């Protein structure tokens, strides 16, 4: 396999001979794409794969990543029959231990959400846990969560089996070929340079593991990864040790345990790990092993001796430390680079590469062949990456936190604490003085809620009502009943200019943006399959100037999407001006009463209608005021030159008390927008969803002279109808809470999952947007017709469904 000569060209070049690279090659070959070359700098498996512990666990953090593991399980079940080479997979199950009441509550919620993927899971009491794993010490044990279909296998054997299956179908696998550069032209990848020569390619896949960051940099693609020291210990043989016991994972003890060849392996996801080779992975022959560090690891091993007492008398045969790459947000990178066509990345798997790799390669192969992902995975999209995330010092701080938190309880609304503050709004200081408790998104410090005087400014995490619940409710009611002010400066802003700007934007947009100057248009941008690539507002500020507003986490991918659709003969420029403008959303039924005395502009409904945008005087300066809303009330978004932002804040604050003005955070903004069923890209909608399914058909202008990207595919959807829709839900139990991914049932049958949720303080219950799948193409009314239940922490709670917003369904309030 490894002695073949480098060809001059191939349809696909895969860089990296670990489990993910070989899986991609194998699945491409199974799809009939055999003009594929896999390049490995050393030998197959020599990067991270060779020292993988081999666990296959389905308890991933999102719906999409669980679907990837489901694909992996199918590979483990069928690969040996296809290739004749074993994966070593054995179904043993996994037991996640609950050693505290909080951990048990987390497991109840985890059990519910994974059922949404059809995963078999049971919550066990202590006695049943000990029956399945008699080596455990029951002290402090509250029970466990059992995944009977989980297992373990050999990472090396699986990789070799995948490579053999690929090679049998014609894939060329070349070892000892180091990629030294990535060739590009016209915004597309065109090939790679190696120590064996150059090779042209239509597609290049970066499956380089720890080297993925450096390989991405060769292509001008930012792939934030950092290798960390990662440990496990293998004991000497233990007499009479039972075989194929369930894998034990104990989050509160930061460890997992599995039996292996008559011994026990204890692996660690412990706090206090450290970066390795942050200035670049050294040139080696692979199979990197780092020095032992018993001073660091000993305390965690001792805790596991208490949980598994048989370890106390077992000698240690192997103390292993090997580097693995982690990402800033703990989520891997899988998909096409936003700024380089046909350059795909599959890297940064945060020590779950073995269990995710076979499925990730399957997804990537389908994506390349079909032109779209078969699994909805906005959380792994490279477009989420921010420039600062590849900074070495940022990575060293933030990525360590990814490992530190891996086995901690995963709380709702949990905030990262490292590498902060970094990006600060011009209004950071006054919002802080007003009591802001900050969260972070895309590096931006954002006021999530405001603590009144005398209330400590910190999060107390809970699966029940958190400590900020009542304070956010007060902010929510201020917007519904009087007026609130939200610092939305972190939102992305693109200035699009030039003779052909209107043609470019109109070609991309489903709505018609060729409006009169001073109008804002809400629209989606689609791909050729009618999937929603972006959800934006576009303001025409001059005949040849437009302002595109996007979310903080999506601005980079939206900018890249827009730029790649500008043709070579078109005069159109795009500039990201996000940091140069502050933005305040002044929202609520008294918004006009607050603003009118502060400006000479006429803010009446007749002279400043909904959808209008114009520059007005305010205080001692000028701002762009746009009458629009993301919270469902009368209001204006104020775009303010950064240097004047503090002045505008002070002017509004000084005028605010008679109108009940309240500063409002992002938790309240989220609960407000969900009551109005306003969509959020990456949470409720993504490239896997079309506007008809998403309830956004009202934005589509079918008869635009220019048409729009994705029109033909969307017309097909319109003519055929849909069998899934995004539906708004309200729980009937006013005390129950929702977060995301909870399964939705209809007449006892699993029909969907919650996409996003928060407590709706005006509606009086937890409100959610969720995807519902019908058994066939059905009329619109079907989705509202039957009673629903949503499973929350193991309990099914009745829920009311609606395709129209439950709050102000006719949208009269924003237009008042």
Defining traits:
816 residues; alpha+beta; FAD/NAD(P)-binding domain; D-Amino Acid Oxidase, Chain A, domain 2; Gyrase A, domain 2; 4 domains; eight-stranded mixed β-sheet; 29% strand; globular
Average per-residue pLDDT, rounded, comes to 97
| Rg (C-alpha, Å) | 27 Å
What's the number of helices? 18
Unreliable parts: none
User: How far is the N terminus from the C terminus?
Assistant: 71 Å
User: Roughly what percent helix?
Assistant: 10-25%
CATH architecture of the largest domain: 2-Layer Sandwich
Describe the structure.
Belongs to the GcvT family. Residues 724-808 form the Aminomethyltransferase C-terminal domain. It holds the Pfam family FAO_M. By secondary structure, the protein is of the alpha+beta class. The chain has 4 domains: 9-87 and 153-226 and 329-384, FAD/NAD(P)-binding domain (3-Layer(bba) Sandwich); 92-152 and 227-325, D-Amino Acid Oxidase, subunit A, domain 2 (D-Amino Acid Oxidase, Chain A, domain 2); 422-720, Gyrase A, domain 2 (2-Layer Sandwich); 723-816, Beta Barrel (Elongation Factor Tu (Ef-tu), domain 3). 24% of the residues lie in helices and 29% in strands. Helix 1 packs parallel to helix 8.
């Amino acid at each position: 396999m490894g002695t073949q000569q480098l060809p001059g060209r191939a349809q696909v070049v895969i860089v990296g001979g670990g489990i993910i690279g070989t899986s991609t090659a194998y699945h491409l070959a199974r799809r009939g794409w055999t003009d594929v070359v896999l390049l490995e700098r050393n030998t197959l498996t020599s990067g991270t794969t060779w020292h993988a512990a081999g666990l296959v666990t389905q308890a991933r953090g999102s719906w999409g990543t669980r679907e990837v593991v489901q694909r992996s399980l199918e590979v483990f079940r069928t690969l040996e029959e296809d290739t004749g080479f074993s994966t070593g997979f054995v179904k043993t199950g996994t037991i996640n231990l609950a050693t505290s009441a909080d951990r048990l509550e987390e497991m109840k919620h985890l059990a519910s959400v994974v059922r949404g993927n059809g995963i078999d899971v049971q919550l066990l009491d202590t006695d049943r846990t000990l029956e399945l794993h008699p080596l455990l010490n029951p002290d402090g044990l509250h029970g466990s969560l059992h995944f009977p279909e989980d297992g373990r296998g050999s990472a090396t054997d699986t990789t070799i089996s995948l490579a053999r299956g690929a090679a049998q179908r014609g894939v060329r696998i070349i070892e000892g070929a180091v990629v030294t550069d990535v060739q590009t032209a016209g915004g597309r990848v065109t090939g790679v340079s190696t120590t064996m020569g150059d090779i042209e390619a239509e597609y290049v896949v970066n499956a380089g593991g720890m080297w993925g960051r450096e390989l991405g940099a060769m292509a001008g693609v930012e792939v934030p990864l950092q290798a960390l020291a990662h440990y496990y210990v293998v004991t000497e043989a233990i007499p009479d040790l039972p075989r194929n016991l369930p894998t034990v994972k104990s989050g509160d003890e930061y460890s997992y345990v599995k039996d292996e060849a008559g011994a026990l392996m204890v692996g660690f996801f412990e706090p206090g790990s450290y970066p390795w080779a942050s200035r670049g992975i050294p040139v080696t022959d692979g199979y990197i092993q780092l020095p032992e560090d018993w001073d660091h690891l000993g305390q965690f091993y001792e805790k596991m001796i208490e949980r598994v007492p048989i370890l106390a008398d077992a000698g240690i045969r192997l103390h292993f430390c090997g580097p693995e790459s982690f990402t800033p947000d703990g989520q891997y990178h899988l998909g096409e680079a936003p700024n380089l066509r046909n350059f795909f990345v599959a890297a940064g798997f945060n020590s779950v590469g073995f269990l995710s790799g076979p499925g990730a390669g399957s997804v990537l192969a389908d994506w390349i062949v079909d032109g779209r992902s078969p699994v909805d995975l906005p959380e792994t999209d490279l477009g989420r990456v921010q420039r600062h995330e590849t900074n070495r010092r940022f990575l060293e701080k933030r990525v360590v936190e990814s490992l530190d938190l891996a086995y901690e309880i995963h709380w709702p609304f949990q905030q990262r604490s490292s590498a902060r503050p970094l990006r600060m709004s011009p209004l950071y200081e006054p919002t802080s003085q007003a009591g802001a408790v900050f969260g972070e998104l895309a590096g931006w410090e954002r006021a999530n809620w405001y603590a009144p005087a005398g209330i400590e400014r910190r999060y107390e995490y809970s699966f029940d009502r958190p400590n900020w619940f009542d304070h956010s409710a007060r902010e929510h009611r201020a917007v519904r009943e009087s007026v609130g002010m939200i610092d939305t400066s972190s939102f992305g802003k693109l200035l699009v200019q030039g003779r052909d700007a209107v043609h470019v934007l109109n070609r991309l947009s489903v709505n018609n943006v060729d409006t009169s100057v001073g109008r804002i248009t809400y629209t989606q941008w689609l791909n050729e399959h009618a999937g929603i690539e972006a959800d934006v507002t576009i303001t025409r500020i001059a005949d040849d100037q437009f302002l595109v507003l996007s979310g903080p986490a999506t601005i980079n991918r939206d900018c890249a999407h827009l730029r790649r659709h500008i043709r070579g003969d078109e005069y159109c420029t795009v500039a990201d001006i996000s940091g140069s403008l502050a933005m305040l959303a002044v929202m609520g039924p008294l918004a006009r009463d607050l603003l009118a005395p502060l400006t000479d502009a006429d803010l009446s409904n007749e002279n400043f209608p909904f959808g209008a945008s114009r520059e007005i005087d305010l205080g001692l300066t000028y701002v762009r005021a746009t009458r629009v809303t993301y919270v469902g009330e009368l209001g204006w978004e104020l775009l303010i030159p950064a240097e004047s932002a503090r002045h505008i804040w002070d002017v509004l604050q000084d005028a605010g008390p008679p109108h009940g003005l309240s500063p409002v955070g992002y938790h309240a903004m989220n609960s407000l927008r969900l009551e109005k069923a306003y969509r959020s890209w990456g949470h409720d909608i993504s490239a896997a969803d079309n506007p008809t399914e998403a309830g956004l058909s009202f934005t589509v202008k079918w008869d635009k002279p220019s048409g729009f990207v994705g029109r033909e595919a969307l017309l097909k959807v319109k003519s055929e109808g849909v069998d899934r829709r995004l539906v708004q839900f309200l729980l009937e139990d006013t005390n129950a809470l929702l977060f995301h991914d909870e399964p939705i049932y209809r007449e006892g049958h699993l029909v969907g999952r919650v996409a996003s949720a928060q407590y709706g303080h005006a509606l009086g219950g937890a409100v959610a947007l969720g995807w519902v799948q019908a058994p066939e193409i059905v009329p619109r009314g079907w989705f509202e017709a039957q009673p629903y239940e949503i499973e929350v922490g193991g309990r099914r709670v009745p829920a009311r469904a609606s395709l129209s917003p439950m709050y102000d369904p006719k949208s009269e309030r924003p237009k008042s």
